[in-house]
From TrEMBL:
Keywords assigned by UniProt, alphabetized: Membrane, Transmembrane, Transmembrane helix
Top-rank taxon, per record: Bacteria
Methylamine utilisation protein MauE domain: residues covered: 5-129
Database matches in InterPro entries: Methylamine_util_MauE
This protein's name: MauE/DoxX family redox-associated membrane protein
Topology versus the membrane: Multi-pass membrane protein
Keyword Translocase assigned: no
Residues that span the membrane, as ranges: 47-65, 77-95, 115-133
Intracellular or extracellular location(s): Membrane
Coiled-coil ranges (or none): none
Major site of localization recorded for this protein: membrane
Amino acid sequence: MGTKVSKVISAAFILLWVYTAGSKLANFQSYRQEMSMQVFSPAFTTVLIYAIPSIEILCAILLLIKKTNKLGLGLSLLLMLAFTGYILLIISGYFPKTPCSCGGVIKAMGWKTHLIFNLFFLTAAILALHIKLKREVRDND
């Protein structure tokens, strides 16, 4: 049962990362313009413009391969932590309201809905990693 749950979560992340990276790359000029309006320095923003979709694609690839699936889940967890932390800072007023450069339908979410969406995926990543680590411990006993 746990293995199936972990596989479903991995599949959901693969769909999420392919969709968000694909949306960004398909509408690259719009994505780049929205990213340029973020609160980061221009140099850091330039790095993020290319790094975010690249890392999302990397996550999807890692999740697809059985030997690197756990690494893909860990990287997905880190990405979701970063994105969720950024949203929390925006909601708390630390940053002024900034455009969402997520891509696709996710971009249309309000910040609170986006937070719930991210918390769901954050929880899913933790659950899948827990299942995998628990199985590894059991298999090594």
